[in-house]
Amino acid sequence: MFMHGIEPKSGLQASAPTRSLSFRAALLPSGLAREVAIAFGPGGVIESVKPGAPPWDGFLAVPAMINAHSHVFQRALAGHGEARGTGVDSFWTWREVMYRLADRITPSQMYAVARRGFSEMLVAGFTEVLEFHYVHHPPGARRGRGVEMAGAVSQAARDAGIRLGLLPAYYKCGGFGGLPPSPGQARFLHTDLDDFFATVSALLENGVPVAGVAAHSLRAVPAEELPGLVERADQAIGECPVHIHISEQAREQEECVVAHGCTPVTLLADSVALGPRWQLVHATHATGSQRSMIRRLGAGVVLCPLTEAHLGDGIFPAVEHFEEGGSAAIGTDANTRVSVIGELRVLEYGQRLRDRRRARIATEGGAGGPAWAWAAASGEAAARPARGGRLRGGAIEPGRRADLVVLDEAGPAIAGHGTRTALDAWLVGGDNRDISAVYLGGRRVVDGGSLETGAEESETTDKFRQAMAALDLQDKPPGAGG
Question: Cα(185)–Cα(171) distance, rounded to whole angstroms?
């Protein structure tokens, strides 16, 4: 059975009566509309979108976002690995700090870190997360079937109240050409596809919400095994999304050329039938012809602008991709800062810096609305691209889930703006404080910047602090012992 994702404990019950929410404005597929009433019925599915009238339930509603790429355990890394003395300061030196975390984290610590990260996602306007999960095995030399670690992530999502779609990641090698893995990768590894799908089966049998699969990268998965990965995934899960890190770093490009005579996107396209089920995470260094091929074949791109900036990856040419009809969802990746609008701001500003021009991802009506609508629709495609896959979110229209983010007209960046410029003001200067409410299936789960389960927030924070102290990831100054 294809499991699209668990319904969190805060989800609307199927017996709920039809109700309606009215907003002074809403971002619809046709653009920004004034005075909108959104009616939804059992299961939180939108039944109608019609002209509305006071009293208003909020200022401006936009479709909630799907977080299309997350490694939630890396929330524990924020602020670590930043000292110049730790190395030449690249993705590859940061990765060593990540390996240290991955080597140490226990199931209980994974739960604490994940619950903190997932709670932050809800407050930021994400109502669903695709978790690209590769810390499969318990700490130490013991190997397992992945249930302990993935189960901790699943429980954290349920307790935080966010929908989860787990993407177990196949990870076999330490580099192109089948290089042996390093000790820091030990907890990620499976010996072959049989071993990996034994883990997938165990997760499904234990109720973990598996939404698809991932190949970690072409560094970690031999290209010749990708067709088998897809075939086995169809057998185990159903026709599902397949995600892969690709062309994130210039060094990755160079090493692939040495090993295979071509860059990663070309190697992928030569190995599998690219199409809508394939989501290419980052694709930062894909060439113009490769991006054109990605669009022509209907594959998606997942961009993580805050992490790509944090790691110094480079700038994906999103303007051209968007104007040519490309799909690009948004993910939080390393979760250094969890903010939907922050991701979109870095995406927009990166294009401005590259082009030395303003208002890049924009139409005559502004930048905030188009950027948000594009990312929301692409996130839905990243989660459910299979033929016949049931649409659930990504837009405010009948048949979609009533997953909404509502802006506060008194928010720090939005105060003084009308509905026409509010989204632009939020894009260029706003943050999570400008959100007044988040609705999941028509049920309000965030109110005034706090989860409706606010009594549990202090416990979440305490457990996160305890986990961070136990993990002891503090940077050591150059020359220090330990």
Answer: 9
State whether 83 and 205 are in the same domain.
yes
Beta bridge partners of 39: 20, 48
Domain carrying residue 171: 65-383
Number of domains observed in the structure of the chain? 2
Rounded to whole angstroms, the Cα distance separating 8 from 189 reads 29
- Hey, what are 80's tokens? 């670590």
- What does the alpha-carbon distance between residue 240 and residue 232 come to, in Å, rounded to a whole number? 11
pLDDT, tens digit, 9 for 90 and up, residues 403-459? 999 999 999 999 999 999 999 999 999 999 999 999 999 999 999 888 876 547 788
Residues 136 and 246 in one domain: yes
Catalytically annotated residues: 282, 333
DSSP for residue 243: E
User: How far is residue 111's CA from residue 75's CA, in Å, rounded to a whole number?
Assistant: 12
The CA–CA distances, whole Å, from 330 to 113, 149, 455 equal 21, 25, 30
Report the SS3 class of residue 438: strand
Question: What tokens were used for 390?
Answer: 């049931």
In a domain, 312, yes or no: yes
Strands (E), 408-474: 435-440, 443-447, 450-451
Question: Of 355, 383, 411, which residue is a domain's last?
Answer: 383
The reply to whether 408 and 266 lie within a common domain is no
